[in-house]
Amino acid sequence: MPRPSRTHDAVDRLLDAIIDGTLTAGEPLPPEGQLAVEFGVSRLTMREAVRLLQAQGVIVQVPGSRHRIAPVSAWTGMDAVVRHARSAGQRRRSSVELLEVRMMIETGAAQLAAVRRTEAHLAAMEDALERMEAHHEAADVDAFVDADLEFHDVVMRAAENRILIAAMLPLTTMLAETRGETSAVPEIREHAIEEHRSVLEAVRSGDPVVARDAMARHMQQTHDDLVALVPE
Q1: Domains in the chain, start-ordered, CATH in brackets?
Q2: How many CB atoms lie within 10 A of CB 201?
Q3: How deeply is 103 buried, as exposed, middle or buried, from its count of CB atoms within 10 A (0-12, 13-18, 19+)?
Q4: Residue-wise pLDDT tens digits, 108-138
């Protein structure tokens, strides 16, 4: 069995070749032996990489013929869709789409968190917010983003819903990249601190509607800042 790291590397490189147009959607996939030579991996590794991309709907098996590369609209794997979304020329659109998804998911998470949170959750949110403030003052964008993401992670955990947490996991990488782009702007960091403080107090209140609305305002502010303050 090929080593997972080698197989995953082959998956990433094959997917990149499809995304950048080296391999064209709708066209037959070159034979696995040819791909293995081109990518410098064993045929077994390439076969496993193709199988994994089949599971994500990127490659389609055609009876009696070679595999074909599916159009992006037919892809079903979150990892593949997110990777394509973050490709050149798609970053602004993907950032807006991510915010739309977050609006739907995180407002519900905040609503549940208001009812189910513990004092430990509130303390963790406060700690993350304090670190956001400190890192903003120090202009440490990476540390600010880490604290920002941790704040939202606590809200998710406070919602006490395992499926909700699992649904957000594939978006983590894309979310970190988007936060890095927006948080590089000092004004956006200031807005984020203010909105996070409102979310914290809303969750602390125990009122699910208040918490939902506070998170919705935060998501809308993030969207508005992205459009107005982050260059294309």
Answers
A1: 4-80 (1.10.10.10), 90-229 (1.20.120.530)
A2: 14
A3: middle
A4: 999 999 999 999 999 999 999 999 999 999 9
